[in-house]
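Request: Have a read of the protein record below and say how the chain folds.
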Amino acid sequence: MNKVKENLKAGKTVVGCAGSPWVENMSILADSDYDFILYDTQHSPFMVKEFIPAIASMAGKKAAPIVRVSANQPDLICFALDAGARGIVVPMVNTKEEAEAMVRACKYAPLGDRSNAGLRGDWGINVQEYSTKEKYREYLDMYNDEVLIAPMIETQQAIDNIDEILSVDGIDVLLIGPSDLSIELGVSLDFEGSEYEKGLDIIAEACKRHGVVPGMYFIPPTMDPNFFVDKGYKFFTMPWGNWATQGISEGLKSIKR
């Protein structure tokens, strides 16, 4: 169902890239061995509805669509999930209560408050199989188990409350916003300094205590992704432009020109 969650539970590193509304690009990237494509509605000019065709183009492909909503609001989360997101990222989750609200917005009753919009075929299931009243509860329970929930930790307040946040049942990934975190730690964009590394270790250790995967929204461009993997960070995005250019260049080399 949700291969991202399956791989995380198996201790594997999952890698995604930033998404865009351009359907052809997303359809290709969804089959390029990325685990997920992350569509951002916080720091981008696009709303969820503008990503719907791109998300639809990923149906049946390897990568899972994940959406970062702009705020911890049930309507925004519900709209993203109705559009086909298999995971939700919420920025600036600072307290246990905010984390609980996020989880409840992502899950159907009795685990949450998400409004039901009917069966959806974008999870790779045969919706007709679950359309009867006898099977519908099975669909809801399966969805509750499979949706990926990733609150972002980006402030000193969140660090101070980290154990309370991580105690909330249903959180799969605690996702760092690298830039905001560095600013909060007083070492703006100093991603390779000792203070920032100390902060990373505190977060990774807290995640380990609670059985939650630590992740990075992005890997700072001058740093080796394996530096973070070795610290336990198993969920992050990587840019695809340079890799695509390299692949095209290699392909052209095979042609006599």
